[in-house]
Amino acid sequence: MIRAAADGSALSNPGPAGWAWYIDDERWASGGWPHGTNNMGELMAVLDLLVQTAVTDEPLHVLCDSQYAINAISKWMPNWKRKGWRKADGKPVLNVELLKQLDAAMTGRDVTFEWVKGHAGHEMNEKADDLARAAATAFRDGTPVAHGPGFSGAAPATPLDVHPGQVDDEDLFSVAPAATGDDDLVTELVALTRDLLDNDTRTSTHRLEQLLHPDLVRHDSHGRVQTYRRLVLGMDRIDLRPGVEVLGLDQLADDVAVLRWRLVMGSRRLLVASTWLRADAGWQLRLEQVTPIL
Known about the structure:
This protein has eight helices and eleven strands. The chain folds into two domains: 165 residues, 2-Layer Sandwich (Nucleotidyltransferase, domain 5); 110 residues, Nuclear Transport Factor 2, Chain: A. A hairpin with a 2-residue loop joins β10 and β11. The chain has a six-stranded mixed β-sheet. A five-stranded mixed β-sheet has the order 3-2-1-4-5.
């Protein structure tokens, strides 16, 4: 069996982007674009790995720190394909050119995926990450990219038939079909999210203490960092009735889940990634990132 790590990197996401896969010091490859996203890099790393290792019949085991890449390739892609490469809400799937090539490259292959935590000292993952970041940096600085030796007997790195400059802002959030994840958990976390948006809750210290983790950190749409204390003591009231549109759910463990959703308040639209931890008293919001859709 061939064990390889695949990774992507984007310096601004979107921005100068790179991808890389690593088996050992004699077998690795990297590349990138002047403008792309981290998710594009993650997918391209797997695609090039599949293409270059197609010269062997050995099973391929891919180590990847991207839940998006693993789920897109091994779970979501068949359903997207049946729906004409559209998500459950009818919108076009992002990175569709890469996904179509991945779909073809996976045909007839014995491939397994394993999620590894990024930046946690995993040797092969760290190697792939360093190579992908070096490629992105080279595109930023206009210096040559170290493409690597590739896989023995394989064709050169796969040309990419996509246009990296055409990047959807939602790609930053790895948008998945709305039905992704445990339906009961999605319902529960959406209910808690709506509770947090309710003005009665926002003026109730007791209820906020139940819903917010003591170590909460929240990055609001203006780039400000808000802590648990700031939110409990001074959460703003909302004048408009907000709408919540679920984009997807990633359950990272039994007691950790990330809800990705769109908040609509009048003419304002925000993309939100909320990380919830399950405590003895129930789910509590631990980390939240809010990004305006311009």
